[in-house]
Amino acid sequence: MEKSGEERRREGPGRRRFVKSIGLAAGGLLAGGAGVVTEQAWQDKPVPASAASVESWRPPGCQVDVFWSVDTKRRLVALTFDDGPMERWTPQALDALDAEKVPATFFVVGSRLRRNADLVRGRFGRHEIGNHTWRHDDLSRMSHAAAYRSIHRTHEAIKEVTGRAPTLLRPPWGRLGGTTLHVAAEHGYDIALWSLLVQDRRFADRPSALVDAVVDNARPGSIVLAHDVGAPSRKVAVQELPAMIRGLRERGFEFVTVSQLRQAAPPPLPGGVGGRPPTGENGRAGEKGIFLPERPRGSRVG
Question: Are 190 and 167 in contact (CB under 8 A)?
C-alpha cells in the first residue's frame, strides 16, 4: 500500500542520502566484448526503470569501456605490440610495418619509452600509442595513488615523445581492479585487451607454424597481441611479421589501429550498452543470457 506523505516524512532523510556506486553493467558485456563501467549518483531520485533513462543522466567522464575485440563483419584486424620500446625489436617491428604500410597500436611501458625515446621519436606517426604503465605494473594489486602515478607518468611521457595524448590503456597481463577503472576514467581512457595471442615462445623453433596459427585464427574484429621485447629466441613474432601480414592479406584482411577498429562496430543498442553479443573466438554464452569473454588465446602475457 502506498505510504502517506506523513509516513514518508517520518522516515527522515536517511533513506534519501547521497549514494555513489561503480559497477560493471552485465548488459554492457556486449558489442565484440565491450563492457561498460559506469559511475551513477542518485539523490532524492527514484531508481530509473530502464537503461535508457540511466543513460540520459549518466555523469560525463565516468564511463570506461573494457573490450577485447570488435563485433564487425568487415575483415579488419588490429595488430598490437606490448612492453616496448626496446632496442632491436621495436625498430625491427617498425621497419616491417613501414615496408608493408601497415598501422599498428603500441602499448608502451613509460620507463622504457623515456629511456629509448630516440629509437622511436618521429617513427610512430602512422601508429597509435597506448599506455602500458610505467614499469609493467600489476595494476590489480596497486592502491589508487600508486596506479595513478604509474599511469599518469606514462601518459605524460607519451605526450612528450609523440606529441599526442593516448586514449587507451592495456593493463599488464590483462589484470585490472576497481582502482584501474577509476584511474582510467580520470584519464579519459578505455581499456583494450586482446582476442588473439601471438605465442612466439611456443613456436620458437617453428616460425612457419606461428604464422599459420595467427593467420588461421584471425577473425573480423580480432585484436592481435604480440611483443616487441624479449630474448632473441622469443622474438619469432617480430621476425615473422612480414609473413603474417602477407598471410592475413591473402585472407582478405585489412589492418587498422585499435581505435580505428572500434569505429567499425555497429551502433550501440538503446541505453548505450553495445550491439550484438560476441560469438566464436570472442565470447561464449553465460548464465541468464550474459555474454562473457573467452580466456584470451594463450597463457600469461603482458
Answer: yes
Q: Is residue 90 part of a domain?
A: yes
Percent of the chain having pLDDT more than 90?
Answer: 62
For the segment 21-49, the average pLDDT, to the nearest whole number, is 38
Residue 13 lies in a domain: no
Active site residues: 82, 227
Q: How many structural domains is the chain composed of? A: 1
Count of residues making up the chain: 302
Asked if residues 69 and 297 have their Cβ atoms less than 8 Å apart, the reply is: no
Task: Name the 3-class secondary structure at 98.
Answer: helix
In a domain, 74, yes or no: yes
Q: How far apart are CA 45 and CA 27, in angstroms?
A: 23
Residue bearing cell 592481435:
224
Whole-structure pTM value: 0.73
Distance between CA atoms of residues 195 and 295, nearest Å = 8
The stretch 152-158 carries a mean pLDDT of: 98
Q: Which residues of 109-138 are buried (b: 16+ CB within 10 A; e: fewer)?
A: bbbbbbebeebbeebbeebbbbbbbbebbb
Structural domain that includes position 100: 18-302
Q: Is residue 274 part of a domain?
A: yes
Q: What secondary structure does DSSP assign to 268-283, as a single string? A: PPTTT--SSPP-GGG-
Structure confidence by residue, pLDDT tens digits, 246-295: 999 999 999 999 999 999 988 766 544 443 333 333 333 332 222 333 34
Residues 6+ apart with CB under 8 A from 104: 78, 79, 80, 81, 93, 97, 127, 128, 255, 257
What CATH number does the domain containing 133 carry? 3.20.20.370
Interval 88-123: pLDDT, tens: 999 999 999 999 999 999 999 999 999 999 999 999
